[in-house]
Amino acid sequence: MTPPARAAAAAGGTALAIEDSGWLAPAAGVLRRPSPNHDERPGGEDPSLLVIHNISLPPGVFQGDAVIEFFQNRLDFTAHPWFENIRDLRVSAHFLVRRDGTIVQFVPTTLRAWHAGVSTFRGRERCNDFSIGIELEGTDTLPYTDAQYARLQALAAAIRARHPIQWVQGHEHIAPGRKTDPGPAFDWGRFGQGPG
Fold it and tell me: Cα separation of 17 and 111, whole Å?
């Protein structure tokens, strides 16, 4: 069985596909929640880097839709005191993989999401220009779920089928000292490809 077929089987037997538009084709457990926090890639560059992140809002809380609302600039900053820390941020990612394996897409893969911030890879700065960002609902130190690994593998296979991805990195690798995600809790071997 090929790696994409294994990933599809692990995700419930349904392969994911990215349409020409850069959006995931409709499928069970896939939601589309457009974010305004994106722009054009310089020169229409096709992404070659996949960046794995984690996020939970507030940190360590996995209920509710705060992450989705944050990426859509709709977060109620009075809902939790910690939210004041991110009030002035305008960020997004292409995808969020929730604890139950649900995939939420915010930005088409053909456009530049604002996920990496100040970053460098192989001597090149501004990784947003040439990368796709996937957020895992989680923290650096709590184990990710079986459903997340299965869906992440299926999603990565779909991205590779649509774009010439050559490398996979954690946010911690492209912004060392500034970011720590996806952290020691992320099992690169289980994902099937280590950073490089």
Answer: 17
Peptide bond preceding 3 in cis form (omega within 30 of 0): no
Q: What is the pTM of this model?
A: 0.92
Mean model confidence pLDDT for the chain: 93
What are the beta bridge partners of residue 135?
A: 53, 96
Phi, psi of 100 (to 5 degrees): -90, 5
Provide the domain count of the chain.
1
* C-alpha distances out from residue 78 to 4, 48, 90, 91, 196, Å: 43, 39, 17, 19, 40
CATH number at residue 179: 3.40.80.10
Is 135 marked active-site? yes
| Backbone phi, psi, residue 136, to 5° | -100, 130
CA proximity to 49, closest of 138, 129, 161: 129
Question: What's the pLDDT at 5?
Answer: 37
Find the catalytic residue in 45, 135, 137, 172. 135
The residues facing 18 across adjacent strands are 24
